[in-house]
Amino acid sequence: GAGVSQSPRYKVAKRGQDVALRCDPISGHVSLFWYQQALGQGPEFLTYFQNEAQLDKSGLPSDRFFAERPEGSVSTLKIQRTQQEDSAVYLCASSLSGGWGYTFGSGTRLTVV
Amino acid sequence: AQKITQTQPGMFVQEKEAVTLDCTYDTSDQSYGLFWYKQPSSGEMIFLIYQGSYDEQNATEGRYSLNFQKARKSANLVISASQLGDSAMYFCAMRSNSNYQLIWGAGTKLIIKP
Questions:
Q1: Is B104 touching A (CB cutoff 8 A)?
Q2: How does pLDDT run across B2-39, given as a tens digit for each residue?
Q3: Which of B45, B92, B99, B108 to mutate to test the interface with A (most CBs of A within 10 A)?
C-alpha cells in the first residue's frame, strides 16, 4: 500500500481482556518496528522485525506482550490480560533496510477501562 | 546511554514568525542520525527532517531547517514563516549506527496564534 496502515484506529478494552493490534507496512519494507506512546510522552521502542524474524523484543514491558510477523509483511501486536497501564498509542513503523527512512502509521489508541 | 532532551514543553508563536524548537542529545557513538517528527492531533508521526552526524551542512527541507551544533550536541529545529497548520507536537529523535531503535524526546507542543 501507499502507507503504513494500522487497525483498529481506536480500541477500548476492559481490564483483563486480550487485544490484537494490526500493522500493514509499506509493501517491500523489510523492517518493522512497534513503539508505545503513553499520553504526553515520546514513543518508546517495543520490538523490531526484519522480515519474519523478531530480532529485538527487549522493549516489550512484560510477558503479556507478544508480537509476530509470520510472513514478513503484516504484523500483529497482542496484549494479553490488559491492564490500565497498557493504555497508550501503539505506533508501527516500517523501513526498507532497518535504517534511516522510517514511515509511521497513524497508530492505534488503546484505552483500558 | 543515549538520551534526547527537549526542554520546551510548550510554545506559543505568532503566525508568520519563525520558531526554534530545542533539542539536545547524548550519545557516545560517532555515527548517528537525528530526526524531527511532527505529530498532529490525529496521531500520525510525520517525518520532517534528518541530519547525519557526519553531514557538514545543516539539513533543510522547505520551511524546516536543522541547526546542528555537534560540539554542543544540539539539533534545534527552525520553522520559518510559521503557519496555523504547524500547530502540533514536535519530537526530536536519534538513532545510532550501533542501534536501530529510535530514541525520542518528550516533545514540544507548538501552538501558532493567528
A1: yes
A2: 899 999 999 999 999 999 999 999 999 999 999 999 99
A3: B45
